[in-house]
Amino acid sequence: MTVEFTIEGQEFIALNGGPLFKFNEAISFVICNTQEEIDDYWSQLIDGGDERAQGCGWLKE
After folding, report:
1. Rounded to the nearest 5°, which phi and psi values hold at 35?
2. Total structural domains in the chain?
3. Inside any domain, residue 61
4. Calpha distance 57→42 (Å, rounded)
5. C-alpha angle with apex 29: 21 to 33, nearest 5 degrees?
6. SS3 7
């Protein structure tokens, strides 16, 4: 099930995973159009973060 909402003009879509998937801090943003943009954002986000929490496209600081 999805829930769509807007905060300060920015549209969001939230997913309800049901009882098998408990609420957590995970969030995804679609902000890029090219791989170069993705690589640039990723390198900035991981700078100084916990290397053990940066696998498979996931980031946790």
Report:
1. -65, -35
2. 1
3. no
4. 9
5. 140
6. strand
